[in-house]
Amino acid sequence: MKAAVLNAFGSPLDIQTLPDPVLSGAGNVIVDVVAAAVTSYAADVFNGSRNYLLETPVAPGAGGIGRVRQAGPDSTRLAVGDWVFCEPTVRSRDEVNSPDQILQGWTYRTEAALPLHRYYHHGSFAEQMLLPTENVTPIGDIDAADAGRWTVMGRLLVPFGGLIAGDLKAGETLVVNGATGGFGGAAVAVAAAMGAGRVVATGRNGRTLEELGRRFGPRVRPVQMTGDEAADRALIAKAAGGPIDMVLDFLPREATGGQVRAAALAVRLGGRVILMGGLRGADGDLGLNYNWLMHNETTVRGVWMYRREAIPRMIRMVRSGLIDLGQFQLAEFPLAEANAAVAHAAANAGPRQLTVLRP
Torsion angle, CA of 214/216/217/222, rounded to 10 degrees? Predict the structure, then answer.
């Protein structure tokens, strides 16, 4: 099979011929990859600046859309040719309470997960993928020309996982902190589809915030952040116009703890704060006050990715029209132009931009 291979951090992707994956028996599925999303930060992963744990050489790519080529004997519903979503979060099967996890073709989280990374090594920047059976979910019949748009499932599912974990209810007021990025913008779309009564969308990019407000209507209240914690909290409270039930934080690595607190400390008595962003180092110390957390009865929870049951739920939301895949601006590249796709994704980051490889 042809694949775009990262031979070493800092080197460009190289189009190579790799051995076709081989079904090992039960528990595996081989998928012909039709479309794979390229994240806006892929260049930082590949140049090593993100310090992701990733053994090279590897065909990278976290998830995608494809068709079943071959399934193991324990697959009772999958059929050859089925259109499927390829879920990149692979979990070990021998410890249900605390499984080791990887993102296939992207990173392994701990040294204990390294054997898993080596077995399910190559990702979706390739013509074929070997995946665990449970990581393949049918999406129903689609037009092959629409496969690229369906890759946005991976972007939608991440905030959906946070909203499920935070138990967002219809009619509630949600703050999406960092709404101008890919995941933050997707969070606004998913929250609106779930029936949020009001979504306060925060960020630095005023033009992008205004676009979110126009696209989703009066339920979405854009708030351009100033960097002054107290002032920003006042702006958020004013836009909410009442009690804030939940905060979903997607602030990037470059943000500060103060920017998180500006939204987190605005929640009502008994409110929830879900952390899914990328703060690192000293800025990752949020400095939340013990006394305030206790008396305000606030739930603060970190969430990484999403549970598998979120996938069929999201497929139904798309199929029902609650999520419109047509809202995303799509740029597609053939596998041979993988490096151009990575550069395009970096230069065109945003809540509506979608860069896709078509292996």
Answer: -70
Nearest to 23 by CA among 78, 64, 101: 78
Name every residue whose Cβ is closer than 8 Å to that of residue 345 and which is 6 or more positions away in sequence.
38, 39, 40, 42, 43, 353, 355
Residue 258: how many CA atoms within 13 Å on its side-chain side?
8
Residue with tokens 């990733």: 54
Mean pLDDT calculated for residue range 285-301: 95
Q: And the tokens for 88?
A: 């990149």
Helices (H), 227-328: 229-240, 257-264, 290-295, 310-319
Q: Which of 328, 351, 356, 287 is nearest to 159 (CA)?
A: 351
Predicted pLDDT of residue 139:
98
Cis peptide before 334 (omega within 30 of 0): no
Residue whose structure tokens are 């909203």: 163
Amino acid 25: pLDDT: 83
Whole-model pTM: value is: 0.95
Domains observed in the chain: 2-152+328-358 (3.90.180.10), 156-302 (3.40.50.720)
